[in-house]
Automatic annotation (TrEMBL):
Species of origin: Parasedimentitalea marina
Protein name in the entry: Amidase
Keywords for the protein's UniProt record, in alphabetical order: Hydrolase
A GO term for molecular function: hydrolase activity
Repeat keyword on record: no
NCBIfam families: PRK07487.1
InterPro entries from the UniProt entry: Amidase_dom, AS_sf
Pfam families named among the record's database cross-references: Amidase
Amino acid sequence: MTHKDIWRLSATETVAHTHAGDLSAEASIAASISRMDAANPALNAVVVDLRTEALERARDLDKARTAGATPGPLHGVPVTIKINVDQAGQASSNGVLALKDLIAPADAPIVENLQKAGAVVIGRTNTPEFSFRADTDNPLFGRTYNPWSKHISPGGSSGGAGAAVMAGIGGLAHGNDIGGSLRFPAAANGAVTVKPGLGRVPAYNPSQTAERGMLAQSMSVQGLLTRSAADLHLSMPTMIAPDPRDPFHVPLPWRGAPLEGPLKVAFTKNTFGYDLHPEVEAALDDARYALVDAGYIVEEVEPPNVFDAGRTGYRALMGEVYTLMKKDIDAAGSQTVRDIFSVYFQEFPPFQDTELLQMMAKRTYYARQWSLFLEQYPLVLTPFLPQPFFKPDRDTEGAEGVHEVLGCAVYSYAINYMGLPAGCVPARLADLPHGPQPINVQIVARRWREDLAVDACAAIEARAGRMCDLLWDRMTQ
């Protein structure tokens, strides 16, 4: 195989070749670096280039393999890490100028688990300041662009990860999600992801000097952006390996027990008064047909309390942010991000004092209602956003912009608030005035059953096709 062929391999295909012995780790990583050289200058997705370390590590993997070592489950797979997670010797800048020299003393669990499995980190990907926008730009590294079009935001906060993996820079891209930061870039770039449920993937940054707020701890999760659902099934068992630094991690296997009979899927198009774009509606219909064709029973039924749970959850999170983070944002953030947060506090009036504690407690009420509903319907097919993905810097355009970007995304942050898993997968390529654009849908699953969400994503992907194949044809035109 040539470099031109190798970088196109999925993570699953890469592992098949490295395990068979017809592709070395070094060749895999060298091909990905060549692709990074070709694609990244136009995207600014990878902002810290780690090629020297990556090639050295790949050679070490090959030497160990030659000496008789058993290759790991991700042997030779090139990966990227988001710049808000600790990687030993690298800055966890979080897109903030004041943190550009915050050097991590050790690897976070996610980095350690990936490398133990044989993956090789080729670079670190961009995020907005404080990783708190659904778009990706910051004063430290600048703007990241969407490989489909500069007229479409790459999403955020894992925007660099989404743009990189879909452009073919690495087979897997690490990201994280407190209100949608895996699913926004998946939807923007046409990637596939699963937002793990609370406690599923161990998390900790050795560079931190204080513990995060309780809602940040209970809503934020670590995950991956991929080009196919199969790559999630390949890689997530590695991601969920336990780490004692996360005392609340739950050590369950990736695959849960099989459920009897055809799985029932609740299906809704309700967008709570926000306009549902015809292409989003068509994507939902395409996803429903795909699931029915795959043997699922899909019933149009309304799940409980989505709007209330979402708005309550994000207003509570804003209350915690206002109390614990506002001073840091005001001191170290750019004027742009300070202005955005001012509008966030208008869009989501922060709960404070006694009311904040009451709304944090109410999280259990919403989670219980969904838990009971998911006993009858183990999966729920929902919109992710009611409209096709927005343009860059839309959230800098005052109340209207923030409302379009985040205000309408209740299906996103409601799921974080309740700690449930949710897949996000492209179901359709829309033909819009600025050009083709992927449209993703969301699949919510029972607690601890990320595997069911990924199975459903695979069924939808089988009908829609892999968006990366369509994108790469477009990028070479």
